Structure formats: C-alpha cells, structure tokens
Amino acid sequence: MNVFRLCGDLSHLLAIIILLVKIWKTRSCAGISGKSQVLFALVFTTRYVDLVMSFISVYNTVMKVIFILTSYATVVLIYFKFKATYDSNHDSFRAEFLVVPCAGLAFLVNHEFSAIEILWTFSIYMESVAILPQLFMISKTGQAETITSHYLFALGLYRGLYLANWVFRYYTEGFFDLIAIVAGAVQTVFYCDFFYLYITKVLKGQKLQLPA
Hints:
Order of helices and strands: HHHHHHHH
Strand content: under 5%
Shape: globular
Radius of gyration: 17 Å
Structural class: mainly alpha
Number of strands: 0
C-alpha cells in the first residue's frame, strides 16, 4: 500500500464520519440525498461480495466491513430513524437511469466474464456516478449546508487521491487498470465545479451555492 491509497481511504472514511455525525447530532438528514446513499450501499455490497471468499489483509477486511456497515447505517438513518426530515421532493433524481446503464456496461466491458468480476466492475461504474443525485439535489435547492460541503469535499478528495494512487502504481509496479482509472477520472470530473465553489466560498466562511 502506498501513501496515496492510505490517504484516500482515510479521506473516504472521514467523509462517512462527517456525514453520520452531521445526521446524528442535528437529528436531521435535511440536504442529504437518500438516493446517493442507497447507491453507495449498492456499490460496497457488490464490490465486497468477496469478503467471505478471500482474505488479503486485516486492514483490507476491516475497511471493507466498515464501508459496508456505515453505508447501510446511513440509509437506515435517512429512511427510517429520521425519515420525517428527509426531503424527498428535492431528492428526485431518477436513480434507475444510473443503475441500469452501469449494470449493462459491466456485462459488456469487464476484465473477466464471471459473477464476481461483473459485480466488481458494476461497483466501479456505479461509484463514478453515485454522487449525481446528491449534486442534483443541491442544484435544485440552490445551496448546501457547510457540513454537507465538507462531506462532499472529503469524498471528492478520496477519488482524487485514488487517481494519484493509480498513477503511482503504474510507475512503480507497472499496474494499470483502465476500467478503474477511467471511472475514477469521470467521478473526479463531476466534483471539479464543486471543488472550485468549496475553495472560493466555504473556506471563506460563505455558504456553498450551486446554480439552479
């Protein structure tokens, strides 16, 4: 493991902690897209289905378990525990328009036509677009709470660090995974506009606003 992957994992974990703490402390999931969180739960479920089939390291196993459990915990908080605060009217992105194409692409473009590999490939494609319902929701409401902005920034930073991880591995190990790199690059592009607004607005103490 290199420093870019480690920092990426920690940034990802930080994003999840920020989100869970925000929901629990405010007793509200206002401004949070439940659809994005369901998609992330789907991502981790399909990616880590090998959890009971193979063992790589204690770190790898622990992180897999944490990501799966926290993703479902977030979904439970949004749709059950604090359902009354969930803004379903603004969380209106058609998630099926993401799931179906990603599933079809996973069957057509993968490293190996096997169940485990197709599920892993689907999770890679799905993760690259899972944040879109959240960004769409912010666009509809016109703004995002500061804590939600911190969550999105940490999540975007995780993807940026993983891109650096793949570049590092290519030059040091000769490792090259085109599917993961392209999907990661696509996901990072979705965050670019948000990064700009985060740096120019949120870090200066202003509320983040996206064009409606």
